[in-house]
Amino acid sequence: MEPEFWHDKWRRNEIGFHNSEPHPLLVQHFGALVLEKNSRIFLPLCGKTLDIPWLRQQGFQVAGVELSELAVQQLFANLALEPEVEDLGPVKLYRTEGIDIFVGDVFELTREVLGTVDAVYDRAALVALPEDVRRRYTAHLQSITGCVPQLLITFEYDQRLLPGPPFCVSSDEVAQHYQGQYRLTLLDRVPVPGGLKGKCAADELVWLLDSPSAAD
Fold first, then answer.
1. What angle do CA 168, 177, 133 make, to 5 degrees?
2. pTM of the model
3. Is-contact 72 45, C-beta < 8 A?
């Protein structure tokens, strides 16, 4: 999926994927990560999600990456914050106290530029990418974050009924991407109210990805 697809979505304000409140499954299950206050959480393909201010209110630092600069500008405007902006070559950094949002292609974000993170919250990245990109994405995510624990939200539905995004990412596919580095625990499976985009039945799944040693 070309970057222009997402730029056009933001220009046209066709952002049905943007929730008008913090994601209920984040609020319900974030504690499963068992993080200390002031831990730094990475949100790939974060848009202007209200999950960011919710995480800040819980006492965490937030880092994110988003392709659309317009989305990032709207994020800070909605928070009534004036960020510092720094050009870092392939990406820009919008920064305020406790919030670092990188503007650019997630594949251009390096571990050195991102810095240390303590966990990943992926609600909108894996499911936004077509199948031929997802394996590259999950490998890159593990590389730049050092395989820190992750809270992952996916969709399961009949892909033949809806082309996506968001795409169906089956439980088997989650295992293919992550089981080599993580212990995978399915925390929840809930039906999408009214179906996905009102067109087909779908479930939303919440995964905890943590170290295999956590089972000991």
1. 60
2. 0.91
3. no
